[in-house]
Amino acid sequence: MRVLGVDPGLTRCGLGVVDGGKGRAVRCVAVDVVRTPPDADLAHRLLGISDEVERWLDKYKPAAVAVERVFAQHNVRTAMGTAQAGGVVALAAARRGLPVVFHTPSEVKAAVSGSGRADKAQVTAMVMRLLNLEVAPHPADAADALALAICHLWREPMRARLAEAEARAAEMARTHKARLAAAAKQAKNPGAAR
């Protein structure tokens, strides 16, 4: 499976494509950072991100897109810009019918390093190790995008199986409830079934 990982941001938006193989084998396909000028108006900055994401989706043809969820930031303006950039990415993927999953920073850190509290240097070091990279992706947004793709490749199969199991359990519960209701109705009015 091929995944496009995106670390959204207005000034720097990290993009990383990773292929997943058997087990936990992963391979870096491409990594880069989209930059938009801070003095440009918001609409043109989002357009620049959108154009580049569209180009990557066309070029690399991922099966899914993993985007970092805006979790919490002290700077509301930065959080808004990050969320808007993530929305542009989700829209581009949705237009192609691609699944989009948002992962929290702690989920990504835990997936690649084993600790949800890992710092940027630890995440970058693990990304380099997992993908057999000789040079660290720079800036950190690029490494984060690769980490998002790896996280998705490793977590999504489990998440999908869990969702499937929950749906089966809910269906079984509905069937059981209906049978109980029918039995209770039959017990109240035993002659109605004849």
Automatic annotation (TrEMBL):
Mg(2+) 1 binds at D7, D141. InterPro entries: RNaseH-like_sf, RNaseH_sf, X-over_junc_endoDNase_Mg_BS, X-over_junc_endoDNase_RuvC. Gene3D superfamilies: Ribonuclease H-like superfamily/Ribonuclease H (3.30.420.10). One of its GO terms (molecular function) is DNA binding. GO terms for cellular component: cytoplasm; Holliday junction resolvase complex. Its EC number is 3.1.21.10. It is found in: Cytoplasm. It comes from the Bacteria. It holds the Pfam family RuvC. Mg(2+) 2 binds at E68. GO terms for biological process: DNA recombination; DNA repair. The active site is at D7, E68, D141. It catalyses: Endonucleolytic cleavage at a junction such as a reciprocal single-stranded crossover between two homologous DNA duplexes (Holliday junction). PANTHER family: CROSSOVER JUNCTION ENDODEOXYRIBONUCLEASE RUVC. NCBIfam families: ruvC. The RuvA-RuvB-RuvC complex processes Holliday junction (HJ) DNA during genetic recombination and DNA repair. Endonuclease that resolves HJ intermediates. Cleaves cruciform DNA by making single-stranded nicks across the HJ at symmetrical positions within the homologous arms, yielding a 5'-phosphate and a 3'-hydroxyl group; requires a central core of homology in the junction. The consensus cleavage sequence is 5'-(A/T)TT(C/G)-3'. Cleavage occurs on the 3'-side of the TT dinucleotide at the point of strand exchange. Homodimer which binds Holliday junction (HJ) DNA. The HJ becomes 2-fold symmetrical on binding to RuvC with unstacked arms; it has a different conformation from HJ DNA in complex with RuvA. In the full resolvosome a probable DNA-RuvA(4)-RuvB(12)-RuvC(2) complex forms which resolves the HJ. Belongs to the RuvC family. This is Crossover junction endodeoxyribonuclease RuvC. The lineage of its organism: Bacteria, Bacillati, Actinomycetota, Actinomycetes, Pseudonocardiales.
